[in-house]
Structure formats: C-alpha cells, structure tokens
Design goal:
It is a single chain. By secondary structure, the chain is α/β, with parallel strands linked by helices. The protein folds into two domains: 3-36 and 299-458, 2-enoyl-CoA Hydratase, Chain A, domain 1; 51-291, LarA, N-terminal domain (Rossmann fold), CATH 3.40.50. Helix content is 34%, strand content 21%. The chain is built from 16 helices and 20 strands. It has helices at residues 3-9, 51-60, 68-73, 104-113, 135-142, 144-149, 179-182, 215-221, 224-227, 241-253, 277-292, 314-324, 350-372, 383-395, 409-412, 432-453, and strands spanning 18-24, 27-33, 38-40, 84-88, 121-125, 151-154, 163-168, 174-178, 186-192, 195-196, 200-201, 257-263, 269-275, 293-296, 300-306, 328-337, 400-403, 418-419, 460-463, 470-473. Strands 3-19-15-16-17-18 form a six-stranded parallel sheet, sandwiched between helices. The longest helix is centred in the last third of the chain and has 23 residues, at 350-372. It starts with a helix and ends in an 8-residue tail after the last strand.
Length: 481
C-alpha cells in the first residue's frame, strides 16, 4: 500500500460506524460505513409463491395475443412440419429457464403437445456480441434435459454465413438477422425485463437487437450517435433511440410470441409477462419501474455499489457504474466491488482490453472524439469504455475506485480509475472474499479520510442492489414511457 494511503486511512476512527452487507457473487461482504450512510434500496416485492404456476398462467392467458396453440394452428402448415426458434439469454442474465419453475420446460411441453416435433425446435442463444456459451454454462442455464434433447445454437454476430439481409431501418441502419431465427415458422423470444443503462429496459425486443443481429447492425445500435443521447438511459423509452431502433428491428423480423420474467432484489421471480411483443414488454416495464426506481433529493459525496450477478467481468460491471452516476456529486467518489468471475477473462474480450487502454491514454473526451471521427472503424465492445468515460467525466480518475480480487495488478493498469489492490499489502495470501472485503473497506476509509482532510463533511450512500436499482434525482424525470 502507498504510504500516503496508509497515513490517511489511519486517521479515521470507526467507533460508532455501522455494518452493511454487500453482494459478492454467492457470498456477502461485511463492511463498516459511517453511521449516517444512506442505504438506497429498491422497494420490497415478494417473490411468486408458486413460480411454475405463474409461468403456466402467463402462457394460458397471454397479453394482447392468441395462445401459442392458436398461433400454431393459424400458420396454415402441417404442424408436424412447423419449425420453431426460441431466442434465449446467455449466462450474463439470471433468467430462470430450467426446472419445474423455469420458462423452458412448460414452453417446450406446450409446443410438443400442439404437435411440434422436438427435432424442429431450435433454441438460439441471443449472445449479441458476447462470447459463445460454454457447455457448462448451457447446463447451468437451461438444464441437462434441455441440453440433451434439443438443438442449442450460439448466435455469432461476426459469422457472415449466419445472416440474411433485410434492408435498412427508418434510421438508415443496415439490418441483418440470424437466418435460423428468421426462417423459422414460429418465432419466440424469452428473457428478463430489468432496467437497462441505455435501452431503458431489457427483454422483449432486445432478444432480437442486439441479441440476433450482426456486427454492422450493432455498430449503429451501440454507436455514440445513440449512446450519447440523454434519453438513452435507465427506465426511459419515449424518445430513446436505442429502444426505438430495437423495437423497429424486432417488428421487422416478426416475433410471434414473447415471454419474459421480472425478478426482485434477491433475483427471485416476481411475475411473468407473455404474449404480444410490445404489450407484454410494456406491462413488464410498468411493473418494474414502480420498485426499481429510487428517488433522491440530493447527490452524495461517496457512493458505494457492486457489480451484482451481471458483473461477471469488468465489461459488464459498467452497468453498475453508470447506475451510480445520478447519486454521486460532480467530483465525488464511486467505489465499486465486483465478483468478476468470468472463467475466460475477468476483464473482458481482447478488443475491450485494447479499447480500455485507449481510454486510459486519451481520456474520456479524447476517446469519444475518436469514436466520432470519420476515420474511426467500429470495434467490438467500444461502447463500454464509452460508458466508463461518462463516469470519469463526473468523478475523475481519482474518484473511481474499483475493487475486484479476480483482476491482477498488471491488468488493473488498463482499467479506468484507481485499483483496490493499491490498498492492500502485496503477497499476503487471502481468500477472494477476504481480499474483496479488505479492498472495499480500505477504499471507504480512504474516501472518508480524503474528504475529512479537506475539512469538509461527507455524505455517503450505498446502493444495495447495485446495477439493478435506478437512483434518480427528483428534479429529473425517471420512468418515462
């Protein structure tokens, strides 16, 4: 640890501080924080008492749509010859797919009871530009029975042989779609509806775009023209270019049926919304915004948050950083603790690593200028460093402290902000949980000490649900449709 950090930390007396618990993968970290630290938390929503029954009811009484059995009969083709494509989420989304309470078994059972043959069903993992799923991840997500008995295909956005061209959208975006999905007689999308830091909400149309489109389509959808729009943010749909583009693309592709879930703060199923693509997604949106949005009457000097389930690597943890921005003062401090457990790379793809280095060299404004320059060639994963750039514009390099024990010291040199490893003594063996606890605790102490050394009082907030909660200032509008 740097001597100046150690000196500052030792000036803080923690008598009277209170303990909080922070989610860290399957574990929790116990951290001491000042007694007036505000806990920003979503409203309590009870989990469904009988999740399997809720899934069945959603399938039996779809929203603004005929039942699946009626849709199948209306295809004017022998049922035994009908092909079906089901778009599913990858491991980065905690969608309850498997088991008696999951989405896939009752959905597949209904299709087959209506006469669809197993061999005519394709389950397509809507990865967008994420890496393909491993065999172990497929088992964990969809269950052994589904993996054993059904064809599961990973979408690959950079495979030109996988796509059909469908012209351009009203915004001029070249549209290419996964041919397995588009050429199927019955097209079904599944997923999770939660807040999304630039599409407003996830689920529904996002299974198609970016889930099943090609790199060129994603290039526009994830480009700075859209991401720098102030309406491209959590819980905003009206005027949000990302939402509107994704919806237009999904409608152009043609989705016959949508089934999405909502989860509470403990990632337990709260409701299932099935039926028409637009209406079911809109009703899920209306449902979640009432409990994920957290109104604030002020910003805080210090905000502590975490990567949640989605924060499997640094790339995905940008969601937590962006979500904390409305809660922190300009020039304040954000501390993020994350269980970056991706077995391939806790940072992200090779392209992402290169782009992070570019962000580090050029700074947030220089990086954005590069993305917007005529000579720039769109690069996979360029949008997440752009999001980190938004964080740096508000709090600066010194105001972002990132704590993940899975990332080594050399790799931390690539990352925006300061490393929690700088607060630890080198070469002291610790468990991941112990290391994450110590990094985060010392980061809090350092942030408090820096503020107090300036003779200023400190206000602090802890975002209990990390990337899933949506803090917003009361003078700004949240939850627009």
């Amino acid at each position: 640890m740097k001597p100046e950090f150690n000196r500052l930390i030792n000036t803080i007396k923690t008598n009277g501080w209170k303990k909080i618990q922070i989610e860290f993968g399957p574990d929790y970290l116990e951290i001491e924080v000042p007694p007036d630290c505000q806990e920003l938390s979503m409203k309590e929503v009870p989990p469904a008492a009988h999740p399997g029954q809720v899934v069945e009811e959603a399938l039996s009484y779809p929203l603004a749509s005929p039942r699946l059995e009626e849709i199948i009969q209306g295809k004017n083709k022998p049922v035994s010859n009908l092909s079906v494509a089901i778009a599913v989420s990858d491991i980065t989304r905690p969608v309850p797919y498997q088991g008696e309470s999951g989405l896939l078994p009752p959905l597949l059972k209904r299709l087959e009871a209506a006469g669809i043959r197993k061999e005519n069903i394709k389950i397509i993992v809507a990865t967008g530009l994420h890496r393909p799923t491993t065999g172990q991840e497929k088992l964990a997500m969809y269950g052994a029975e589904v993996v054993r008995n059904y064809q599961i295909i990973d979408h690959k956005a950079d495979d030109p042989d996988l796509f059909l061209r469908l012209g351009v959208t009203s915004r001029g975006t070249a549209l290419s779609i996964n041919r397995h999905f588009y050429l199927s007689d019955l097209k079904i999308v599944t997923g999770l509806v939660e807040s999304h830091f630039f599409a407003g909400i996830s689920g529904g149309r996002k299974a198609i775009c970016p889930g099943l489109v090609d790199v060129k389509t994603i290039e526009k959808f994830h480009g700075p023209e859209y991401l720098e729009n102030p309406l491209a943010t959590n819980l905003v749909l009206d005027g949000n270019p990302c939402h509107e583009e994704a919806l237009e693309i999904a409608q152009r592709v043609g989705v016959d049926f949508s089934i999405n879930v909502t989860l509470n703060k403990d990632l337990k199923l709260t409701a299932v919304f099935a039926g028409d693509l637009v209406e079911s997604n809109l009703q899920a949106f209306q449902f979640i915004k009432n409990y994920v949005a957290i109104p604030l009457d002020r910003e805080y000097d210090l905000v502590l948050t975490h990567g949640g389930y989605v924060g499997q690597n640094h790339y995905q943890t940008a969601k937590a950083a962006a979500g904390a921005l409305p809660a922190v003062k300009k020039g304040g401090t954000i501390i993020i603790v994350a269980n970056n457990r991706d077995p391939f790379d806790p940072v992200g793809s090779p392209e992402y690593r290169t782009l992070l280095h570019l962000l580090k060299l050029q700074g947030p404004d220089g990086y954005l200028n590069l993305l917007q320059s005529p000579g720039w060639k769109f690069t996979r994963d360029q949008w997440e460093p752009e999001v980190w750039g938004k964080v740096l514009r508000k709090v600066g390099e010194e105001g972002l402290i990132y704590c993940s024990p899975e990332i080594n010291r050399k790799d931390y040199d690539l990352l925006p902000g300061r490393s929690g490893l700088e607060l630890l003594e080198e070469d002291i063996p610790m468990t991941l949980v112990k290391k994450a606890t110590e990094m985060t605790q010392k980061a809090v102490l350092l942030a408090v000490a820096r503020r107090e050394s300036s003779g200023l009082p400190l206000s602090m907030a802890f975002i209990r649900e990390g990337p899933y909660a949506v803090p917003y200032l009361l003078q700004t509008e949240a939850g627009s449709q």
